[in-house]
Design brief:
binds NADPH dihydro-nicotinamide-adenine-dinucleotide phosphate, two-stranded antiparallel ribbon, eight-stranded parallel beta sheet, alpha/beta, TIM Barrel, 11 helices, 14% strand, 273 residues
Amino acid sequence: MTVPTVVLNTGVAMPELGFGVYKVPPADVERAVTTALEAGYRSIDTAAMYGNEAGVGRALRASGLRRDELFVTTKLNNPEHRAGDVEGAFERSLTALGLDEVDLYLIHWPLPAADRYVATWRVLEKFVEDGRARAIGVSNFQIPHLRRILAEGTVVPAVNQVELHPRLTQEALRAFHQEHGIVTEAWSPLGRGRLLTDATVVGLAEKYGVTPAQLIIRWHLQLGNVVIPKSVTPERIRSNFDVFGFELAEDDVAEISALNRDERLGSDPDEVT
Ligand code: NDP
């Protein structure tokens, strides 16, 4: 099964479905990523903050897959961002992953109180120029943060990876992304698993004969989001990938979107310092 891709603003194709490894302990990550690659995932989302880049790198090498078959995302950690050690942090991530370049490098959090994200972005722009990042983007950026990058940077972020699930549908941000050619990538796409028992989700999953997780992943795909569910459970890793054999009716997509309560499970990006 080949996952559909979205073409980023540097011309790089990014799989619309990837595998997230937040909170996967370093000792478990190689096995989880190996299971994901065997299931067919080709895009892996890690971060320096997760402390598991080295294990991700081991799984990539052990897979025998060619580098050009894989899409690897990692992110700049907050302390180095705050301290302005962007080049050093990027090199340490490449070394941990055992890669010469990443497909996508993101600023993990804007840290607006530190007021460094524009300066940091100018450094990331060099990584695209010298080929060490095939694309660059941001994570947890709100519209005012994106406006500053658009006004003061020279490269438009390829992606903004944000918390997004049926309880936090991010309509305004998604519309802004669309206007500027920025791809929306959904983190905690399953609401950290908490949305899987919602009565509407369970009812619609029964209607389509799929699992609640498959229903929500399909909802993301039909909205045009890149989606990166996480699991350490082999059966879930495999079933979360099996989402290309059915399609939700427009009414059902709307019914899932109507679960929105603008409710965050993670931190408010404006408050992370
Ligand atoms: P998810 O919404 O992907 O939910 C993961 C949870 O759902 C886990 O507890 C998992 O359990 C459970 N789960 C997964 N599939 C199923 C299933 N089929 N049935 C039942 N339960 C299931 O949450 P995450 O917060 O992990 O988000 C996904 C990824 O997004 C992260 O791994 C990371 O890559 C990224 N992320 C980025 C952030 C950022 O700031 N940029 C912040 C947070 C996440 P189990 O593992 O036990 O199977």
